[in-house]
Amino acid sequence: MAVSKCTRLTGPLIKQLLDSVDNVLFDCDGVIWRGDQAIPGAVGVINLLRKNGKRVFFVTNNSSKTRKMYAEKMSLLGFDAKEEEVFGTAYCLAMYLKTIIKLEGKVYLIGNNAMKQELENVGIQQTGSGPDLIFGTPSDWANVPLDPEVKAVVVGFDWDFSYMKLNRAMQYLSNPDIVFVGTNTDTRLPLEGGKAIPGTGCIVKSVETAAQRQAQTVGKPSRFMFHCVASQFGLDGARCLMVGDRLDTDILLGSNCGLKTLLTLTGVSTLADAEAHQKSGAPERLGMVPDYYVESIADLLPALQG
Amino acid sequence: MPGDFAFKGCRKIQGSQIIHLLKAKDFFLFDCDGVLWHGEHAINGAPKVVNSLIRQGKNVFFVTNNCTRPRENYVNKFYRLGFTDVIQEQIFSSSYCSALYLRDVAKVQGQVFVIGGEGVRKELREAGIPIVEDEIDATDATIYDCALTQNVKAVLMGHDDKFTFLKLARASCYLRDPECLFLATDNDPWHPLQNGRILPGSGCLTAALEVATGRKATVIGKPSRFMFECISSQFPLQPAQCLMVGDRLETDMLFGANCGLDTMLTLTGVSQMKQAESYRDSKQHTNQNFVPDYVVDTIADFLPAFDVLD
């Protein structure tokens, strides 16, 4: 069925779209906030959606906060959100290991405190988090003691990433029975204050290169992020709208899962990017073309208020 | 014919075939790790092979991606392990060649931000290239307050066992300037130690920086041609008279192919005969570039030939 795509969402179309969905999933960075500043109008949109009987969820690739920390940040910025509505990759990765991999054993973790906590919350022990600097000789490094209880190597955002951690991960991964999972492959991580630094994708790629193995990824555009939300809340993909700022993660996830998709232009991707994917006609790029776009999610306000 | 990728022999040779090769070639390029030595132990017979070649008037060079020591340390190692006739001028490491690239090819005007150890830094200093010296050893330094040095015109990624996320972040800041060069000493993903153990190589660190910046590094070391061009700029090399001897198909053999040299795989290191044959039999014709012309079990297989030639 030929559907017109990449349509500007305006006027009566907004109400038409919102009437066709029960659930709205929002990415966070570049959609509802930028760093530590809420996007103007975003709070109003979320509140009004709920008033209009929609369920609202937040789906982010950022692995550096637990759901609790995200809920606290949202509260601070004026968003009314419950922990259960937030799906960050620290939480989703722990759920993936528990429910899909059904991991029995420990994890060697290249990651952060939030990931450590989310793993502990599902009863999975980790080893390796925190600083890990080089000591000894190359022979010592190649012969680092490996914990026999470790059954998975997990990679997320880690300020303390170092050669020694890369080495340990590589040594564990030489055993093909050890599972290799990353939170996400984003190349950059947006910080408070608008700066950006190398993202988890760099760390994952580094470990993949050493281990000569590919990581499974939990974060967008992997379907697991949607599956996590959908299975807990009984969501029907056809009645869901995915709102994001990145074509290769948010929109692609939406397309992969049969959701309606809305691109907001307050973040990473531009309208030109979307149109380029559309014009290409290449099947692997069509999933990155959004159904609709808005300049900012604040554009939804008039229809919600009316 | 040398460099003819359609017909790489992958032939194990010995005896009279080696004699023939020794007569035909004037220039011998050797990789080091896995070819001449394993760590601190010379491979049996290797010192005698190298010393004999030099004494017979052959031009011998050493082409190594290992950037962890400056050349003067390498000379000491060669001597210590019995390769007593080797002099510094014969040694071409990726760190030395990176310095030459920055000085003579890129003609860099400004400072270089180096991620690497003394092996790399010393070579740059000796070539008169200013490097960013204020090291981020302060444990409380973060990306928020890392003061970026002005006038950084190149980032050089080498092997760094002290690699940290902060160094990655700083390097990617410098590389936002498209005029700032992005170089890597080599792309090796891992290196073998004794007993089948391995360690991560520079390739892993370069990969991280490439992802962070969306840019591709210019790789100085094998299999890139540059190290051959370095040697050529100092010595009158004739590709047809060269033999490249190495242990790694994806670096040494490909390097030889890229430079139009005949190649020899020795089986004392990383790659195995099975892997060479697999490339040879593959349908992808570019895989022929990984296939050696000749194979020996060890370079000590040259020794009987010297008895004949002496």
Helices and strands, with pairings:
The complex is a heterodimer of chains A (306) and B (310).
Chain A: E1 7-8, H1 12-19, E2 23-26, E3 33-34, E4 37-38, H2 42-51, E5 55-60, H3 67-77, E6 86-88, H4 89-101, E7 106-110, H5 113-121, E8 126-127, H6 138-142, E9 150-155, H7 163-173, E10 179-182, E11 188-190, E12 196-198, H8 200-211, E13 216-217, H9 224-233, E14 240-244, H10 247-256, E15 260-264, H11 271-280, H12 283-286, E16 292-294, H13 301-305
Parallel strand pairs in A: 1-16, 2-5, 2-14, 5-6, 7-8, 7-9, 9-10, 10-13, 14-15, 15-16
Antiparallel strand pairs in A: 3-4, 11-12
Helix pairs in contact in A: 4-5, 7-8
Chain B: E1 11-12, H1 16-24, E2 27-30, E3 37-38, E4 41-42, H2 46-55, E5 59-64, H3 71-80, E6 91-93, H4 94-105, E7 111-115, H5 118-126, E8 152-157, H6 165-174, E9 181-184, E10 190-192, E11 198-200, H7 202-213, E12 218-219, H8 226-234, E13 242-246, H9 249-258, E14 262-266, H10 273-281, E15 294-296, H11 303-309
Parallel strand pairs in B: 1-15, 2-5, 2-13, 5-6, 7-8, 8-9, 9-12, 13-14, 14-15
Antiparallel strand pairs in B: 3-4, 10-11
Largest sheet of chain B: 7 strands, parallel
Gross morphology of chain A is: elongated
- Our measurement of the CA-to-CA distance between the termini of chain A, rounded to an integer number of angstroms, reads 32 Å
CA-based gyration radius of chain B: 20 Å
pLDDT average of chain A, as an integer? Answer: 95
Unreliable residue runs of chain A: none
Number of helices in the DSSP assignment of chain B = 11
Largest sheet of chain A: 7 strands, parallel
Give the neighbour order of strands across the main sheet of chain B. 1-15-14-13-2-5-6
Tell me which oligomeric state these chains represent: heterodimer
Shape of chain B: globular
Output the helix-strand order of chain B.
EHEEEHEHEHEHEHEEEHEHEHEHEH
**Rg over alpha carbons of chain A:** 20 Å
Secondary structure class of chain A reads alpha/beta
Largest interface: A-B, 36 and 32 residues
Would you count the extended β strands of chain B for me? 15
Helix content of chain B: 25-40%
Would you tell me the structural class of the helices and strands of chain B? alpha/beta
Query: Termini separation of chain B (Å)?
Result: 28 Å
Strand content of chain B: 15-25%
